[in-house]
Amino acid sequence: MPSSDPVEEESRPTKITKMDDSLDVTSATTGTSTIPSYRPDAKTRRYDRQLRLWASAGQRSLESARVLLVGCDATGCQALKNLVLPGISHFTILSPDLTTAQDVATNFFLHPDSVGSPIAEESVKYLKELNPAVEGSAKVEDPASLLVTDPAFFTTYTLIIASNVIPSLELELADLLWQTSASVGGSDIPLICIRNSGFIGRVEIQLREHSVVDTHPDTTHTLRLDAPFTSLEHHARSLDLATMDSMEHSHIPWVVLLVRAASIWKESHNGRLPESSEEKAEFKELLKKDKAKGDEENYEEALAQAYRVWGKSELPWETGQILDDDSVKNISTNSKNLHILLHTLSEYVSAPPHLPPTSPSLPDMHSSTTSYVHLQNLYKQEYQSDLKRFKRLLSQTLQNIGLEEETIPDEEVESFAKNVAGVGIIKGTPLRQGKEGKGLIVRAIEDYQYDEYDGSSTCFAMHLALLAAERFYALHKRWPGTKSKADMCEDNQQIEEVLKGIMGGKEVANVFAESIAEVTRGGFGTLPTTAAFLGGVVAQEAIKLVTNQYTPLDNTVIVDLIKSQSAKFKF
Amino acid sequence: MPRSTYTEALLGPELFKKVKETRILVVGAGGIGCELLKNLVLVGFANIEIIDLDTIDLSNLNRQFLFRKPDISKPKALVAAATARHFNPSSGIDIHARHGNVKDSVNDLEWIKGFGLVMNALDNMDARRHVNRLCQAANVPLIESGTAGYLGQVTPMIKDETECFDCVPKPAPKSFPVCTIRSTPSEPIHCIVWGKTYLFGKLFGEDDEDMDTEELDKAKASGENAEEIENLKKEATAFREVRKNLGEEDGPQRVFHKVFNEDINRLLAMEDMWKKEGRIKPVPLEHEGIMNGTFATPPSRQAPSTSAPNGTAQTNGSSAQKKQSLKDQRELTLKENLELFIDSCKRLSARSIAYPDTPLSFDKDDDDTLDFVLATANLRATAYGIANKTRFQVKEMAGNIIPAIATTNAIIAGLIVMQSLNILRRLPLPSAPAESSAGPAIRNVFLRTDAIKPLGYSMPAKADKKCSVCRDIYVPIKVDLEKCTLRAFVDEVVKGWLSKAEFEGKDEDEDIEWTIFEGGRLLADPDFDDNHERTLDDLDVKRGKMLTVRDEDGKYRPVHFSICEGDAQATSPYSLPSEPPCVPLAPPAPASREPSEEPIILDSMPPPTNNVSENTPISSTTAVGTKRSAPDDGDVKGATEEEQVVKKRKVVVLDEEDDFEIL
């Protein structure tokens, strides 16, 4: 895309100099020599606003990602646009097709002059202009043949997006990637499949096993109010509230107040914490009695946070589930770092107090600086000693499976120990399973009941309509709704029959007929707004998968843009 | 082949005709604006005006995909339109791009009435408010939107049907007491705010002695330490001295000495201030000592931070990947900070000298200003034993940066167009106003980080009956401002034309008395006619502004006359709609203040022009102190200036890259 040539700027007072220009003004007016630069380079500046979301670690992963787009339509190109902008390493578009006028009408990354040229080459040309740091290449070949002649081509990518490709190709691709990911320690290549028809869109993600190093949970503070470590409890009990001046009294951090109150309570209740609602109310009353003045903010905070005292400190349920997984239980030299760390964690929590390492960070609270820093140091010291124990266990674990002690860098160990609650492993299902109406979808069909107030109920019907349409394609080698108008009804009837088959004799509610009609009406063409929306969603998921941050959508999302509804299913 | 056959077939001929014919206004050509413009063009919207006052910056390029590196510093609206046109050269699409402020006076009620639908793609509260009010006054549907990181929202706003932007109160931004910022900082943010809003302004901004004195007097009146305030006043005087000499070779060094040594010593002399629990005495910094390494860095009051500066996320690669810290994510040494301070002072003062009429202001993307705030904040933090921050962190804190990515903007822009189609379905065709039809209901849509249900929607809420923006009455008035006197307005427009309006619940013999405001200024009331002979132009009632008419008892809704450009052929100095409006009763509780109105500032009036005699009093100077207040200007007067500013800039949760000041 040639750089645009805007009309002459109106004369108006603006900010005078910006960025690199400022150097010129300086040297022009004062002649000062080169400035010592603490400034980020151009790349960091370009990515500034996103670095604040996924940090430099996420950016590094992104910058080593190679993405393959199979099929070259508006939706796929919108998704690529959203990956090229934040700076993936490389993208390839694989399509044998030539550009048509209809392609130009819906795909922003084509020019009227593109008509007749290979669409992959044309789109790559325009997409590359979005970010000079990203490599792009076109492969003008038939994907189905390439799958047969050169399957290794596909497995060199970090992630593959299949945009509105024919159903059989989707499945063959999915099979290849599922098998490649089967071996322990093998590459795990997620596949994202897009299907859209008019206002209806669907995204399916196949991943065999995906680890998330940071799910970005709401809170990672493990304050251990109910089960304080020795130095914390000691500190809380050593305070002499009676002799304190009012300033000091009103600046005791709420964490300390609660640890103290809980500790005192346990003494008089055989080591138990408040359980019934009466006890909980009583606990709060006792806390209130200590309040010297009416407006002590620290006590207000303590009362508001009191529920944390009876919320038991324990290993998060999700983390416990992961520890039970075979890939964590049985580790080997081929295991990923994360699995080895989780294995170690499982040994770590088998010893009292059966809790993950103490988090060194504290939430904000009303407090004087000195009291806060003191409290912070207590947590930090505890974290350090927990970390030491964890590292001891880790080096034992590594030795047992025959790995060097330095296999996992310290930095990775520490960030794991600090953020145990943010670690996740997702086990996916093969795409073929759901498409053939096996596995989880069977149960979903059995349990299905239409509920007009529940958007996911309509979205599920929409998914089955798409599924039936895909089977229609396998039979007729064309999409429903793509022949003359008169055939629309006929197509609808045929799809309904297929859908009845998928439903296994279960009664087909009206909503299915409506869904089929909407899907057929769309004729499996791409509406620019649907493409924009889905392109955003797909790229968002790709970024989650590539950076191993945040929980990806596992595994099917349906969007109805007429009703602004969406739902996620796992099939 | 026609480009849009598929879209046309799917939307249906009627809706597609509306798409082609309706004039669309897009306000903002940033992250959402670029995506939106692309979508509109592809769907077939053929009559688009896009306005943006900003120019392109490198940090825009990770998402504002219509811009390239060679476009940096060019106007966003013009480049966006040019790129979008390039891709649709033959489709007969008219994109009118304007580099300007939507708040400019030419963008008045008549202008906004020319659009069938307005889409906000803005990054700040002030402009959002302004466009909302215009749309409410003109009864033009508005689609409001915003993104922040992974979150986003789309909110259609239609007069009389949904709530408007001002129906929902927005949370106030965080503010700090003056003395904390100026004398007793205890957190890094205090030092950053000081560098950015205080020291920067003192050295390079507009020299506002009066405002400064006023601010300090108010702080004193509201109970802050009187001795401290007196001291700060002296400090301010001394600043004018160093500022004068800033351009000299040793100017920056003298500033350093004054700010980080003399001023701190003066504070230390106030023994009482340091007796409070938790306060830690600062240590004066010494230029020479720092440069030759003999200066002992004051002890830090906080334990060293254990968390990595930029998140803790890790790649799960099995190879030992050494973390390579980005340049702007390392902490500078004391000496480096000092050098950066001196150097950035030199660069900024050189700019001040080169362009003496353009006061500098802090801009997070302007390196010179960011360097200055970074160095200043860290030096101050060091003196007070507060932890230093990296450039990356200071930029985020000082610039109130909200993360922004391509994906969220793409999703939100897609949803905006979907809602616009839902709205268009119901609107009459411009070429056949009688026809309109029903369609899918409009929705508020939210994008969340929820891995179960990423998209949420809700039915738009009804307008708040107390809302002083969308519930008031608006009347366009085309005026020849130089001919129309205030008397003509009061006698003919208000007492003549408006009194014929239907007032809800008006008694037969009720005699309504009127008060006339412009913004927060009182121009006339039954006992105050000093301005009557002046023309509206002379009273600075210009195009784009509003004359607000209230009844004395606050019984009825205020009526706002929006000043539009006069008819060139008109014989009368003004022209009005043929029918006066119906004026409903005001809600029983006192109406909430008008958020978009400027606070009363006594000397905001321009001096009278020559053809008006010197002794013609200016309404606000006489009126403000003595008159009883209008229904909702009472609290304006009562509020401190800081509060007023805070109220003016309430922050919405979801703003793309919001530029609000920390006060």
TrEMBL record, chain A:
Pfam family, one: ThiF
Biased composition (Polar residues): 24-36
Signal peptide from the UniProt entry: none
Any one Gene Ontology BP term: protein neddylation
InterPro entries associated with the record: APP-BP1 (IPR030667), ThiF/MoeB/HesA (IPR045886), ThiF_NAD_FAD-bd (IPR000594), Ubiquitin-activating_enz (IPR035985)
Sequence intervals crossing the membrane: none
Pathway annotation: Protein modification; protein neddylation
Keyword Transcription: no
Residue numbers spanned by region Disordered: 1-40
GO cellular component: cytoplasm
Keyword tags: Ubl conjugation pathway
Molecular function as annotated in GO: NEDD8 activating enzyme activity
Compositionally biased spans, kind Basic and acidic residues: 9-21
Record's function text: Regulatory subunit of the dimeric UBA3-ULA1 E1 enzyme.
Similarity annotation: Belongs to the ubiquitin-activating E1 family. ULA1 subfamily.
Name of the protein this chain belongs to: NEDD8-activating enzyme E1 regulatory subunit
Organism: Kwoniella dejecticola CBS 10117
UniProtKB/TrEMBL annotation, chain B:
Chain intervals with Basic and acidic residues compositional bias: 629-645
Residues annotated as binding ATP: 28-33, 52, 60-63, 76, 123-128
Record-annotated Ubiquitin-activating enzyme SCCH domain positions: 315-395
Domain (Ubiquitin/SUMO-activating enzyme ubiquitin-like): residue spans on this chain: 477-556
Name of one Pfam family that matches: UAE_UbL
Homology family: Belongs to the ubiquitin-activating E1 family.
Quaternary structure and partners: Heterodimer.
Protein name: Ubiquitin-activating enzyme E1-like
